[in-house]
């Protein structure tokens, strides 16, 4: 019984496979089996990493991230009239170049035509001081400081937007970088009517400045005299009679 059972199982397994084509050789069967074995092998980690790298490369980055690795965009001036000259100074090159790039990008997003950064001549300062005191004062020591400069020029800019740009740079100023700005404003030809406007504005500034102080103003001379003749001021000064009024 066991032998007949094994023979029947082997016959069933052999009949389950499709018949081999006529004329096929052993080499053909060997190549087919090798292909099946290669396809049945699991995917290695190197192939997975290559696929992930391809997928990451196909993903497009944001424009804001791409702009960081590119040169800052600039706007063209229509008339070419200078409005502001911003001079940046530092003792090292790296923060100077970084902040000049930041200033150009801020000017572009504010709609200001910016040109630069233009390298300016270096400022070299030297000092010679005694190395020590007393009997060693004949030995001297030299110190040198080199200041690097860059200039950014704004053309055809609105004065209010230029002031906004400078205020933003002052707020985000980088440590170790100094700024110096020359601003030009152009008025109309002929009679200058802006003086009347300025006088009105100066008259209105009194109410504004009155709220900025920590102590209120003294007021009119009558109020000052009344305050000095008060009981508290007389007791503080040791006076019994009120102060005489000036006529």
UniProtKB/TrEMBL annotation:
<dbReference type="GO" id="GO:1990904">
    <property type="term" value="C:ribonucleoprotein complex"/>
</dbReference>
<dbReference type="InterPro" id="IPR036838">
    <property type="entry name" value="Ribosomal_uS10_dom_sf"/>
</dbReference>
<keyword id="KW-0689">Ribosomal protein</keyword>
<keyword id="KW-0687">Ribonucleoprotein</keyword>
<dbReference type="GO" id="GO:0006412">
    <property type="term" value="P:translation"/>
</dbReference>
<dbReference type="GO" id="GO:0003735">
    <property type="term" value="F:structural constituent of ribosome"/>
</dbReference>
<dbReference type="Pfam" id="PF00338">
    <property type="entry name" value="Ribosomal_S10"/>
</dbReference>
<dbReference type="InterPro" id="IPR001848">
    <property type="entry name" value="Ribosomal_uS10"/>
</dbReference>
<dbReference type="GO" id="GO:0005840">
    <property type="term" value="C:ribosome"/>
</dbReference>
<dbReference type="InterPro" id="IPR027486">
    <property type="entry name" value="Ribosomal_uS10_dom"/>
</dbReference>
<protein>
    <recommendedName>
        <fullName>Small ribosomal subunit protein uS10m</fullName>
    </recommendedName>
</protein>
<comment type="similarity">
    <text>Belongs to the universal ribosomal protein uS10 family.</text>
</comment>
<feature type="domain" description="Small ribosomal subunit protein uS10">
    <location>
        <begin position="85"/>
        <end position="182"/>
    </location>
</feature>
């Amino acid at each position: 019984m066991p032998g007949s059972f094994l023979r029947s199982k082997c016959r069933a397994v052999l009949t389950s496979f499709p018949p081999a084509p006529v004329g096929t050789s052993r080499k053909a069967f060997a190549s087919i089996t090798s292909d099946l074995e290669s396809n049945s092998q699991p995917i290695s980690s190197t192939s997975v990493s290559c696929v992930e790298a391809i997928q990451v490369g196909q993903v497009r980055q944001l424009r804001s991230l791409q702009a960081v690795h590119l040169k800052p965009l600039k706007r063209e001036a229509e008339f070419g009239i200078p409005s502001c000259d911003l001079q940046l100074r530092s003792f090292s090159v790296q923060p100077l170049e970084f902040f000049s790039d930041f200033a150009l990008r801020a000017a572009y997003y504010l709609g200001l035509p910016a040109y630069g950064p233009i390298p300016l001549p270096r400022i070299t300062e030297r000092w010679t001081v005694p190395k020590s005191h007393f009997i060693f004062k004949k030995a001297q020591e030299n110190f040198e400081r080199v200041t690097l400069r860059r200039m950014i020029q704004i053309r055809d800019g609105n004065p209010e937007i230029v002031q906004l740009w400078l205020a933003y740079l002052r707020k985000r100023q980088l440590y170790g970088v100094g700024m110096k700005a020359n601003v030009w404003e152009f008025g109309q030809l002929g009679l200058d009517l802006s003086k009347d406007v300025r006088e009105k504005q100066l008259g209105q500034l009194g109410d504004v400045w009155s709220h900025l102080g920590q102590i209120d103003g003294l007021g009119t001379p009558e109020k000052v005299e009344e305050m000095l003749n008060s009981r508290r001021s007389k007791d503080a000064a040791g006076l019994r009679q009120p102060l005489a009024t000036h006529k």
